[in-house]
Amino acid sequence: MDGQLESVPAVEVDPDGTFKYILVRVQRAGGAEHRDLVRGTAAAEFHNHIFEKVNPEMEKLGFECKCLGGGKIDHNSKDKKMRVFGLSTGYGKADHAVTVEILKKVYQDYEITWSDDKK
């Protein structure tokens, strides 16, 4: 069953806490059009656990996924702040600037920053 690329949520992250995240490129198999998604959860011990959950969901919709890298997000919903930092040992560092731009489209009233800091 084919899904529309635009109908896939751009961001799915935990509402609070510090957790691992990945930047995922999704596109129709063989297609040129793509969309980058941010996925993050404290339930993931490793970054690949997030990808292993996202990939089958996207395949069911007729999309291919590629992990562009990872890091961590510190999400403080009370203060409406997010900090993107760190890297994934397995996938490498995501382009945090791209991640922040995607997050800002969803969390428009947040202060969102990024750094190459490991902690």
Automatic annotation (TrEMBL):
<dbReference type="InterPro" id="IPR007702">
    <property type="entry name" value="Janus"/>
</dbReference>
<dbReference type="Pfam" id="PF05005">
    <property type="entry name" value="Ocnus"/>
</dbReference>
<protein>
    <recommendedName>
        <fullName>14 kDa phosphohistidine phosphatase</fullName>
        <ecNumber>3.9.1.3</ecNumber>
    </recommendedName>
</protein>
<dbReference type="GO" id="GO:0101006">
    <property type="term" value="F:protein histidine phosphatase activity"/>
</dbReference>
<comment type="similarity">
    <text>Belongs to the janus family.</text>
</comment>
<comment type="function">
    <text>Exhibits phosphohistidine phosphatase activity.</text>
</comment>
<feature type="active site" description="Proton acceptor">
    <location>
        <position position="47"/>
    </location>
</feature>
<dbReference type="InterPro" id="IPR038596">
    <property type="entry name" value="Janus_sf"/>
</dbReference>
<feature type="binding site">
    <location>
        <position position="20"/>
    </location>
    <ligand>
        <name>substrate</name>
    </ligand>
</feature>
<dbReference type="GO" id="GO:0005829">
    <property type="term" value="C:cytosol"/>
</dbReference>
